[in-house]
């Protein structure tokens, strides 16, 4: 039994777990070029907001090593162009542009191209390491909040394989296992791409955590029938007022939690907050290919030419969120005030580091 990892930097090579192939095949692939990284992100070989950010950071660092110039100005120009390219791969998870921005910032003061190349790679490794630490802390805070509750519902995969390790929403279950605390996790299958069925169930089984799969449409019934005591989800972008974008279907669960009077928790690192965005209305929502809905495993399930709407994320208004669990602590309403306070404490400037 072990917590699976999705991203590894081994002897100067980026190796990822190909999440497209799970749960049938556990395939690890090397990403050697910026195009490999872009493709892996857009085709969901690697997915989950923090994992996208970490992979893109390595992608930018890999590309930077290959730029054949001794002059700093063109080097910065190439890095900026690469960052724009990688940043265009998926629009909702803010961790992507956050990580790319952090790498660019890390080389601003470099005196030579050689120094910049070393610094940009070091920063990617740092982001990777920091995310594991952040997720472990999130798990600790989530365990405090879940004290006395064992039956917990989740959606999508906000687990170890969506981050450096442990995950965000799944972190308390992994950490709980390490500490001898058992949970009964209910995983929504998460149509249309089945991150819940394919990834969360697989990941929790690998780690020896008790997990039960339901279809998304069974959530309301299951909360009552199985006595679900809390819902915990991840996030792709959290606006300054606490409105939270996460996998499509999350909003349904938030409304159900309110109807059943059980807590609805969002777990995310501070890298997932976007203070430039005042509220959820301004969060860009990715729309993906129609085939994700009209086909399952390559087989059509709807008439040819069916009109489709396929938003990959929805936005849960802050009023439905009981608490937001970060590595800096647990944030409660009033979110607008308390989120700003966390960031002011973190950076001293009311900005994301
Ligand atoms: C810790 S991952 C948090 C979110 O990124 C996760 O809940 C989610 O919605 C992932 O969506 P995906 O489309 O699989 O990248």
- Class of the largest domain, according to the CATH hierarchy? Alpha Beta
Overall mean pLDDT score?
96
CATH arch. level architecture of the largest domain: 3-Layer(aba) Sandwich
The secondary structure category is alpha/beta
- Helical coverage, percent range: 40-55%
In DSSP terms, counting alpha (H) and pi (I) runs of 4 or more, how many helices?
11
Rg result: 20 Å
**Helix/strand order:** EEEHHHHHEHEHEHEEEHEEHEEEEEH
Neighbour order of strands in the largest sheet: 6-5-4-7-10-15-16
CATH homologous superfamily of the largest domain, by name?
Translation initiation factor eif-2b, domain 2
Distance between the termini: 36 Å
Number of domains: 2
Poorly predicted ranges: none
Name the bound molecules: 5-S-methyl-1-O-phosphono-5-thio-D-ribulose
| Main beta-sheet strand count, sense and barrel state | 7 strands, mixed
Number of strands: 16
Relative strand content: 15-25%
CATH topology of the largest domain: Rossmann fold
Shape: globular
Topology:
Elements: E1 7-10, E2 13-17, E3 28-31, H1 34-42, H2 49-66, H3 72-87, H4 95-106, H5 113-145, E4 151-154, H6 171-178, E5 184-188, H7 195-206, E6 210-214, H8 219-225, E7 230-233, E8 237-239, E9 244-247, H9 250-260, E10 264-267, E11 273-274, H10 291-294, E12 295-296, E13 299-300, E14 313-316, E15 323-326, E16 329-331, H11 335-347
Parallel strand pairs: 4-5, 4-7, 5-6, 7-10, 8-11, 10-15
Antiparallel strand pairs: 1-2, 2-3, 8-9, 9-14, 12-13, 15-16
Helix pairs in contact: 1-2, 2-3, 2-4, 2-5, 3-4, 4-5, 5-6
This protein binds 5-S-methyl-1-O-phosphono-5-thio-D-ribulose.
The site of 5-S-methyl-1-O-phosphono-5-thio-D-ribulose has 18 residues, from helix 2 and strand 9.
Site (Transition state stabilizer): 156
InterPro entries: IF-2B-related (IPR000649), IF-M1Pi (IPR005251), IF_2B-like_C (IPR042529), Initiation_fac_2B_a/b/d (IPR011559), M1Pi_N (IPR027363), NagB/RpiA_transferase-like (IPR037171)
Enzyme class: isomerase
């Amino acid at each position: 039994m072990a917590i699976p990892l999705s991203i590894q930097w081994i002897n100067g090579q980026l190796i990822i777990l190909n999440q497209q192939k799970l749960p049938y095949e556990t395939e690890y692939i090397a990403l050697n070029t910026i195009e490999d990284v872009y493709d892996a992100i857009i085709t969901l070989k690697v997915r989950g907001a923090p994992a996208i950010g970490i992979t893109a950071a390595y992608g930018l660092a890999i590309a930077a090593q290959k730029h054949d110039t001794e002059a700093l100005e063109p080097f910065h120009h190439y890095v900026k162009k690469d960052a724009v390219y990688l940043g265009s791969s998926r629009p909702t998870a803010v961790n992507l542009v956050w990580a790319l921005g952090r790498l660019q910032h890390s080389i601003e003061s470099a005196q030579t191209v050689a120094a910049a190349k070393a610094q940009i790679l070091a920063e990617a490794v740092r982001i990777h390491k920091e995310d594991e630490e952040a997720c472990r802390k999130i798990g600790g805070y989530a365990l405090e909040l879940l004290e006395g509750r064992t039956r917990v519902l989740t959606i999508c995969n906000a687990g170890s394989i969506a981050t450096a390790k442990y995950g965000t929403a799944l972190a308390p279950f992994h950490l709980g296992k390490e500490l001898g605390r058992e949970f009964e996790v209910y995983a929504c299958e998460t149509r249309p791409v089945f991150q819940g069925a394919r990834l969360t169930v697989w990941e929790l089984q690998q780690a020896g955590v008790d997990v039960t799969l339901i279809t998304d449409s069974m959530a309301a019934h299951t909360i009552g029938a199985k006595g679900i005591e809390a819902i915990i989800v991840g996030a792709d972008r959290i606006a300054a007022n606490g409105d939270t974008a996460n996998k499509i279907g999350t909003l349904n669960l938030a409304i159900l939690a309110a109807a059943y009077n059980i807590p609805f928790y969002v777990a995310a690192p501070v890298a997932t907050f976007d203070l430039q965005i005042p509220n959820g209305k301004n969060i860009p929502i990715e729309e993906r290919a129609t085939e994700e809905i009209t086909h399952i495993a390559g087989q059509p399930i709807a008439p040819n030419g069916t009109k489709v709407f396929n938003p990959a994320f929805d936005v849960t208004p802050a009023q439905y969120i009981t608490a937001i669990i970060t590595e800096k602590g647990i944030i409660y309403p009033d979110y607008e005030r308390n989120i700003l306070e966390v960031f002011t404490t973190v950076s001293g400037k009311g900005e994301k580091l």
